[in-house]
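Hi there,

I know you've been waiting on this one. I reran it after we fixed the sequence typo, so this is the corrected version. Both the input and the resulting structure follow.
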Amino acid sequence: MLDVWDLPDGEFILVEVDHWGNPMGWEGKTLLNAIGSLVRRHQCAPINFLSWKDMPKDYITDMVELIQSKFRFVPELTKQTKKILIDDMSLKWRQFKYELKSKGYDESRTKEEMIAHIPDPRVDPSQYRDLVHYWCSEKGQKISNINKRSRTKYEDLHCMGTNNLPRRIHEMTTKAKGVQPSRAKIYIDTRTRKDGSIVTEKAAIVIDELKKKMVEAESSQNLQSTQDSTDWTNDIYSKVKGPEKRGRVRCLGKLPHQASSSQSSYTNNRIQKLENLLGNLVAVLKVRFAEDPQINQVLEAIDQEVPTNDSTGKDHQTTNNLS
C-alpha cells in the first residue's frame, strides 16, 4: 500500500466521493486504508478507552486534520463525508481492539503474562496493560459474553472481503454504465462467491425469492417503479426482506440523517434535469419539423407530459407574481 503519511508536504491524493459522501475508487480505498493505519497509532487513538464514545474529541479532530493534510475531496469535504470518515475510524479502532484480544487474550495465562506479550509493536505498553485489566474484569467479561451471543445470532453474512459496500456499489454502477443497481442485485452480488456458490443456506433462500420477484417484475408493466434503485420503500428487496428500520438501509449501508428525504430530493433533481433536457429537445424539434403534422402530433403528446422551456418560464413567472 502507498504510505500516504510519507508524502512530501504539499502533495496529496484526490478522492472522489459519491452523492452520499462515500469515498470511491482506488483513491478511496487508499484513504480508508490510511484511516486503518492511523487509528492503530497509540498517539492518535489510544486503546485504553473503553469505547469510541469515550474517545476525547481532540484526538478525533487531530486525526481528521491529518487526513485533510494528505487527501483532497471532490466535491469538497462536507459534514456528511467527515461523519463517514469518523465512523470508519470508530469501526477500524474497534476492529483493532478485537484483533488484539483475539491474539493476546488467553484464559490459561495470568494478567501479567498477557501484559508481557504485546501482539502488535504499535501498541503502547501502558495502554495495553489497561486493556488487559479491562478484559479480565467482571464488566469486561460480561460485555464480551453479550457480544459473543449477538454474533452467533447474526446469519446474514456477505462475501465482499475487505471491499466495503459503497465501493462495491460504485463498481457495479460503473460496469452498468452509470445505472445504480437495485438492492436485490446488490444482495445477490454480495452473497455470491466467485465460484457461483452462495455464502449461507439462508442467503440462498433469499436469493431464490429475489430472483422470482425479479422475473415477475420483468413481465410486469410496473418494471421501472418496482426496480427503481433510488426507492427502497417499495422495491423488490423490501417485498422479500421487509421494511427498513431507522439509521441504516440494508444493501445500501449507513445513510445520512433524513435519508429518505435526501434520496427523494436527489431523485427529484435527476428527474428535473431530464425533463429540462427533454423540454429543450421538444422545442428544437418543433422548429425543425414545423411542417410535419405526424411528428408534431407526437411532440404535442410529449409536451403535455413534459413542459418546454417556454412553458416552464411562464410557470415560474406566474409563481413569482403570486409571491
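Quick highlight: The first strand starts at residue 13 and ends at 16.

Best,
R. S.
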